[in-house]
Amino acid sequence: MYYGLEALTHNLSEGTTVVVWVNFAVHSANSIVVWVDLLLCQPRSFSARAQRWTVLFVALYCIWIVRIKTVRGAFPYPFLDELAKTVPFPYNFLMVAAGGVCIIFTMFRLGRFLSGRITLSLGRAEDCDQMEVRGEIKVD
């Protein structure tokens, strides 16, 4: 997505003139969509199969990031280049990737634990023309 926007906007998400909507689209909009999806699409299983597919996607994305580093001479995320000043490549990248995988496993475990305990639904309130959000938290 980032490089597609870069091509369309001629490097306006970085550089001297930054277009606010490009930065929002790259860094925030996708996160908002994921959170809305997680909260409204019930039930979630957080199955081992979904976890394997997620780890595969992350591994392919890591390969893509290393490819960008090889072609451009710099990572697409500047903090990795900054980290390379103290921790040499590939150890800096492997350290961040391992941390990311740990976060994925932790989030899947948390998701399995919370699945069915927290629900959120969107609907119309009775005798009212307004939308309402209903939530429920089950405590065992």
From TrEMBL:
GO terms for cellular component: endomembrane system; membrane. The chain crosses the membrane at residues 20-41, 53-69, 89-108. Keywords: Membrane, Transmembrane, Transmembrane helix. Pfam families: Far-17a_AIG1. Its main location: membrane. It is found in: Endomembrane system. It is a multi-pass membrane protein. This is Uncharacterized protein. It comes from Ostreobium quekettii.
